[in-house]
Amino acid sequence: MITDASPAAQPELEPLSETSEEQLLEIAMGPQHPSTHGVFRMNVVLDGEHVVRLKPVFGYLHRNHEKIAESETYLGSMPYTDRLDYMCPITNNWAYALAVEKLAGIQVPERAEYLRVIVGELTRLQNHACLIGFLMQDMGSSGTPLMYAFREREKILDLFESLTGARMMCNYMRFGGCRVDMPAGWLEQAQNVVREFPRFLDEYENLLVSNEILMERTQGVGVLSKELAINAGMSGPMARASGVNYDIRKVDKYSIYERFAFRVPLGAHGDVYDRYMIRFLEMRESLKILNEAMRDIPAGPIVDPKMRIRGFRPKPGEAYGRIESPKGELGFYLISNGSLNPYRYRVRPPSLINLTVLEDLCIGQNVADVVAILGSVDIVLGEVDR
Amino acid sequence: MTVTFLILAVITVAGTAAAMGLRNAVHCVLALTVGFAGVAAIYLQLDAQFVGLTQIMVYVGAVAILAVFAIMMTHTPLPAKPPTYSSFWLLGSVVAAAVFAVLAWAICSSAASTQGLPPEPEVSVQQIGDALMHQFVLPLEIMGLLLTAALIGAVVIAMDRREETK
Amino acid sequence: MSSLQSYLLLSALLFSIGLAGALTRRNAILVLIGIELMLNSANLNFIAFWRYGPAPAKLTGIMFAIFSISVAAAEAAVGLAIILAAYRHSKTTDLDQMNSLKG
Amino acid sequence: MVGEGILKGLVETARNFFGSYVGKDRLTTVQYPEERLPQIEAARSFPFLVYDGPDWDKGMRCVACQICEKECPPKCILIKKSADKKPDAVGKPQFYPAVFNIDISVCMSCQICVEVCPFDAIKMDVDYDLSTDDRFGDLLLDKERLAKSNEYYNAIHPTEAAAVDAHFAEERAKAEAKAKAATEAKAAAEAKVAPAAQEQPVGGETQ
Amino acid sequence: MTQALDQIFVLTKQWLLGFVPASAQPICSAILSVVPVLIGFPLLFAITTWLERKGLGRLQNRYGPNRTGPYGLFQPIADAIKSLTKEDIVPLTADHTVHFLAPVLLAAASFLGYAVLPIGRNMVLVNMNAGVLYFFAVGSVVELAVFMAGWSSRSKYSLLGAMRAIAQMISYEVPLVLASIVAIMQAGSLSTVAIVDKQAGYTGIWPHWFVFTPWGVVGFALFMIAATAESNRSPFDLPEGESEIIAGYYIEYSGFKFALFFLGEYLGMFATSGMAITLFLGGWSAPFSFLTWIPSYVWFFAKLLALIAGFIWIRGTLPRLRMDQLMSLAWEFILPMALLNMLDAGIWHFMPAGVLRWLVCTAIVAVPCVLLGQGLKRNKKFQVRTYQFAK
Predict the structure, then answer these.
(1) Structural domain span for residue E304
(2) Closest CA–CA distance from residue A19 to any residue of chain B (Å)
(3) Which residue range(s) make up the domain with A247?
(4) Which is deepest, A150, D196, E125, E300, by most CB within 10 Å?
(5) Strand bridging mode A264-266 / A177-178
(6) E133-163 pLDDT, tens digit each
(7) If you count residue pairs, one on A and one on E, with CB atoms under 8 Å apart, how many are there?
(8) What is D47-163's CATH number?
(9) ipTM higher than threshold 0.95
(10) How far apart are CA A126 and CA A43, in angstroms?
(11) What whole-number distance in Å separates Cα of residue E93 and Cα of residue E100?
């Protein structure tokens, strides 16, 4: 049962001693738990309030995505990718489209690339804003930052809706371009949203960045070392917070990202605070990209005219297309045997790979920190379980 | 012997008897708090307001909670139920009953029993404070020392010495 | 039977209940609680004698009770700490099993 | 100074508190049943079948080619081709769907059926406040419930529908010219002109 | 006229008592005093839930409840009906008796504290000699109720929550009492009525509230921090941290019993706020001498609502502390400051009135406050960081 619940102050991160097994308390956090970000379970073994072991259990949301995709046409999988990471469907579309384009050697028109960058970075904005909001919610700030994030996300989702017809299940990309062009007035509306976004970031900064309670809760908590980040294959803000300079937008230079002047923020400590500040700074960099892209977008076709929507059969071969999704490296691996559907279809979900270090981050921490650490990993169970 | 006293006495005795007789240790402590509260109410009835409130604060608010904490911490998850009573429970009960018999006999035959209730004394908190600070200042200081020693001692004894033994 | 007598009888009863508990229970914590109960009955005696005594304005009974409560609180804290330490050592609070000095 | 960040946060929430009474941009909630967001043209909910003219059964554009049935990712469309051929508006004998069912509990509103349809016969609706208490019967939409008029289509997707109509007008003009040429060449008296002028002939274009 | 308005409740009670025979008068008087409290404060609870949901909504740029009644005013009624009609689920393995008794005891204990709160001139249920002591004594009963709830549910989450709650309540009871001692020292009495009377005078238009002294403002701040922790409000709501241990000790409660917990928690918050008002904010006295024509009870409730608004504001802004941080805040900051504040109040008492007294007493509390804060900050090694960008 409970051992160290005495009111005396407990030293932070005391070395764990061999407590006999029966004194440990095992609690199942989830699958019905408010801060597991979906149907996710952590079997946490506690010594007092300190985590001794943590076993993540997932698969509650498994939908057989990869196997279904192998019996669908190439295009037929596109709407399913929306449902992987449902917070940012457009980047999922993008990664899949990129993989198929690599497989079939399709060129994407200039205007479509710009459109992709614009919607992709808007997706990053709303994902990061919501993530920070959720992280604060996990730390118990009764949803205020989350509501501010949702207020801004709403504006971005309105943009998505008027562009693609849906707020979340956008199904926007097509092989060789995008499905529809911007409706009249969309660009001005988007520019407006981007212009007003910094005000929201300032609001966040006032509310959170120098907050003592927040700093105390997050600094030095859940430290991920640079070595472990590299060895465990971390990507995205998670890796960059640990000081790993790895941004696929810079590494692969896919799409037209080399045209934009943006910087990659790097953390020095790799704790929860760094992970959330990196996302904060990335939002500011995304705004720069958005401003440039919306200024420079050329006229022209939005989809490769040679591309046929039906009867698409890429020649036999394999391809791996990856992008820097808001969560990290999102990749799709495809093998074609020349038929209508892929022979093999595999997703490299950033959420799942980033989740693998959860136990390493949580051991020795307080049980209250577990939810904060989980929040800072930024998982979406649709993507983890697929 | 008023009705109020009777009610309070019944509550107190029932609570304490339950505390000593129940099988579940936590139930025992909960029943005991009823007994303590009953004693506190009797103090109030005896116009000892300050003592009564202190009794509630110390016994219900601190000692009972402490006991409950101790029970939780020493809880063994083994399903086998150990016997509640000691092996010489019969002897113990007999001794207790004998003590009560002797005490009751002494009380009933005492000369003090003939006294009536004197008029209600006016005891304000200020008077108690004055007495503590003047007449009883030495006991107060000693008590402070004792409490400090007890505080440190309890912490030292209860502290987990796992790090040292390693 | 006068009022003072009834208070004293109640106090004696509480004392006996506490004594019975302390003597018959196996759980060390409950034994400690029995001792607390005996202390309480003594306090009740003090208060009763103060109230029915010749000089209630002198506050001696109240002072005794206050100091006694303080001692009881200290005793409970130290006692429970000792029980905890003993439990860590022998993994039981059963007094019938805690009968060897070697542990 | 300790507490500075906390005070800053308090000031920020206070500003939002008062700001929500002043500025509309802070209070973005839409009071749904009473007020609604403006209709977005690109919006999509569930598919429907377009028909021309007053009679939904006669004027249905669908020719039961079953392309959408094959391409639908979650396979929520069931089409049974008619045994006979029905002369369509142009006079060309075409199959028609004897059964056209969409299970909208399965449909994921991806719009792929719309994109692959060569006849502009299936389009996306924009109606979003849909609900039913009949879990099994009411979610399977049959031909009759799927049929919506071209006017409705024009009302919900004006730009898109205008392009479709223009395309049809072109096709119809071509077909009429062709028919005229045929009548002149054959000189047959059977002037089988379309009975209703506004019924557009369904085009035979592929992909 | 203003006198009559001020004493209208007292006079009404006297008038009503005139109708009953003399032998029944004490008991009738008690009933007439207790019943309004039993009705009034739950009513305030209903208003507060509405205020809280509206206020939090606006803080978060939402409307808050606005469907039931004008401005959503009937929302508490709807909530009450909902919680009353919900199925009362008791876990199969729970200790049924204790499980049932816990919410009842909690609600009852929460009501007891109101007996000594002077909510208006001559409006106190019992003018107890040891009023403040009584208040803290019944406050400690709440801990027992919390333990009963957590233990009897036989759930690991509720047990963890109860352990946290008790540890927190015990730790913060010490600073709470120590922070209130300065007011007791100055008033020279434990009676709440005497403490308020001491603050009821005016110099010019300014009131003699204890909060307008160096030790008073520090004492008030410490008292409010401890009271926030004692009533489990954000940012000290760890025992019920819904994102960590979901609801803490009352996770296994539903329906009316859950509502009782909710009620008890809010009543506790009102009671401690009311005590803060009594000790530092002059109780029912008006803030300016020219405003004394407004009835005293209005002032009490106005101050109470202002404090509640502060609670709501803080709840809408701050994230939650962690258990060890909460404890270190109590032992390393609040407790030393409270002790120092007692010394400061003593010095204030013995120094002659004047500017020098102000300066000395302010320095005694302000300098250590800043130093302690800086020391804590440096110890914890947290700071706003600057970040580098990859080249």
Answers:
(1) 2-378
(2) 9
(3) 7-381
(4) E300
(5) unpaired
(6) 888 888 888 888 888 888 888 877 888 788 8
(7) 147
(8) 3.30.70.3270
(9) no
(10) 31
(11) 13
